[in-house]
Amino acid sequence: MAAKRPAARRPTMKDIARRAGVSESAVSFALNDRPGVS
Fold first, then answer.
1. Band of residue 2 on the pLDDT scale cut at 50, 70, 90
2. What is the pLDDT of residue 37?
3. What is the spatial distance between Cα 10 and Cα 17, in angstroms, rounded to a whole number?
4. Measured CA distances, 11 to 1, 5, 19 (Å)
5. Distance of CA 21 to the CA centre of its chain
6. How confident is the model at residue 31 (pLDDT cuts 50, 70, 90)?
7. Where are the alpha helices (DSSP H) in 1-38?
8. What is the pLDDT of residue 16?
9. How far is CA 1 from CA 4, 24, in A?
10. CA of 32: how far to CAs of 1, 7, 16, in Å?
11. CB atoms within 10 A of CB 27
12. Cα(17)–Cα(8) distance, rounded to whole angstroms?
């Protein structure tokens, strides 16, 4: 019998920030299309 993988959860802003090496506010600014974010 094949092993079932646990259900994947949606990534949070904290997960994204940690992975990208930036702050949570930087992620928020980028997702909300704030000026000055490249």
1. confident
2. 80
3. 14
4. 29, 17, 10
5. 11
6. very high
7. 13-20, 24-31
8. 96
9. 9, 41
10. 45, 28, 14
11. 20
12. 18
